[in-house]
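Field: COMPLEX_INPUT
Field: COMPONENT_COUNT = two
Field: RESIDUE_TOTAL = 764
Field: MODE = joint
Values follow.
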Amino acid sequence: MNTQKITLFDIKKNYGDKLIITEILGGNAMRERLLHLGIKEGDTISVLHYKNDGPCVIIKNQTKLVIGAGMSKKILVEMSGDSND
Amino acid sequence: MIKVALVGNPNTGKTTIFNNILNSMDYTANYPGATVELKKGVLEYKNTQIEIVDLPGVYSIEGYSRDEKITRDYLLNQNIDVILNIIDSTNLERNLFLSTQLLDLEKPVLFILNMTDELNEKHIEINADKMSNLLKAPIILNSAINMENSKILDEIIKSYNKKNQNSQHILFGEDIEKVLENIYSIIKQDAEIAQKYPKRILMLELIKKNSEILNSLQNKKYFSDIFKILDKAKKHLEIIYNENINFVISDKRYGFAKGLCSEIVNYNYEKRLNITEQIDKIMLNDFWGLPILMLFSYLLFKITFSISEPFVLFIETIIEKLALYLSNILEHTPIFKSLIVDGIVAGVGNVLVFVPVIFFLFLMIAILEGSGYMTRGVFIIDKFMHKIGLHGRSFIPMILGFGCNVPAIMSTRTIKSTNERLITILINPFMSCGARIPVYLLFINTFFAYQYRSIILFSIYLIGIIIGIITAKLLRNSVLKDDEEDFIMELPPYRMIRFKNIFLYSIKKVQIYIQKIGTVILFGSIIFWILTAFPIKNNEIANIDESYSAKIGTEIVPLFKPIGIEDWRLPVSFISGFVAKEMIVSTLATLYAVSDESDHTTFKNRLLEITKKDGSNQYTPFQVIIILLFVLLYIPCLGTMIVIWKETASIKWTLFSLIYPLLTAWTLCFVIYQIRNLF
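Field: COMPLEX_OUTPUT
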């Protein structure tokens, strides 16, 4: 298992690979805003689409979110131990 | 009267429920931030008057963005009797977060689990009875296919009559609860404040140091005491939790939502990709995404103008015949004939012709919105928008601006960053709205051969977009520097377009358009006819060159000489265009109809044959291009100015939105005209 910390922005993942959010940088306001949309540290998410140097689309449970580059640079993730189906 | 507020996350089908209950014809848009105005409706049910307000879709009522603030202020300050919380049942956990906040408002809350038809498809089971017991509140299952209107209305009345039913609160744990009690024991001595806000909201906001509430306490004797206590309490709790207190409270709410879901929801996850994901694999593809977006934009444009063409021609013929018929029967009363034929039929008729274009334009925009594709556009275009200092989020107001700038500017409320929102507002008038279409089509169809028309029209739109982009870039690099918006947005699933809904929506837009023609344009046409026909001498209308219009026009036309506009009629029509852009066409039609002594019935023929004093044609295709560019850019209409003023709350920026486009339009036309003169 790869435990190296990398941002959601930098990680280039295959469709549906599972990631765990390890840390959300960028202050309480941003953490709270993400929480209102159902995203917080410890959550498992998958990246569905991303644009190089641009936004990405993630999914958690039933919610799909477009996250801009400014924000995804502040979200630290690691690969989940589970292999994807 | 029972006052009811509809509250829920974006994309939960609030507006559909609102419309269905009120039998209104509005449609729902499938993206966050569509409900930008507060839509209200009153109905009578079982001898009770019920007022329903559709509040903007929000994820929380903390008040981070403008629409959250609108919802929050409404819920706190208007005396609402019942809250209807619309919940997307396929996404219960996230939706319940907002519900936990609503429960703190100390009002009866009625939960509507919506979109239950999608539950089966997604293999989700919800135990609604258990949910109702745990939340101590009524729950109604609803879906677009199975609307439970009367059940909802019955429950509203029931909840209203029970009034003080003690609904469930979320407890935040002993440490926090104790602090909340302490604060309340002090604050409750001030009856004014204690009654103004719901108890738990008041305490929670105080502990979070909500500046709005703290400011209202500023003049109280006990302010410094309570401030010290709050400060201490906050620090104390942050030591216990090792975390910001706002976050702790939100987290507890989520904990509750999650716990509740684990009790009542049974997920049987589907492993295969659903339809939305399959479509998105193509739509959001790195390679195909942008070309598809461009194709759709082109189709939006192409279908709007080609499908509407035969309808436009048809109405044009009818109006021509009408004008001819009226001229004949009114022959013996020349002044009255002039008012009817030159003033009203010319002024109103030449705008009425373009109603079909407006219909198809709104239909196409509604399809983009309703299907959920608009939000995909946000993702695809985001990277490009970054280059001009904006985010993908500004894409939606820009597209809506092609319909009408007023709702487009209001839809910027979901943008959190102040500067980014301001820029998105200020560039919106450069997105060519539907009201400008009559001007373009009139001139383009008159002066250009068929094969050039599309490309010229398309270029006009494109130039508007480019000027918008340049403006955004200039503002970003000067006064409205980056204030870093953390851009995040929900991607709704694709939904089947309900053609009935969008058809009715477009009809409604057309009704509004026709209303505008019947009021503003009609009134304006009469005013401009009077200005043109008067002073009346010897029972004859004025010689056009001595009319009031001519006097106004000749005064200002020197300002337009440097951009090649010499006919005084054009500046007069530009002034009238400030009221509504369609007025440009009706004013010109009236001005030319009055001055035309030959018996042309169509405005187009008149335009083609008008000559200058030296006998050369008044309008050349080159001059038409200048006119079109000027009309595209020169000024937002009055309605747009008012909404800019309201939304920016700044006289400075409202003036900017007036002066900057004027200077831009003039300068661009000046440069083009002067360059052309060199050769």
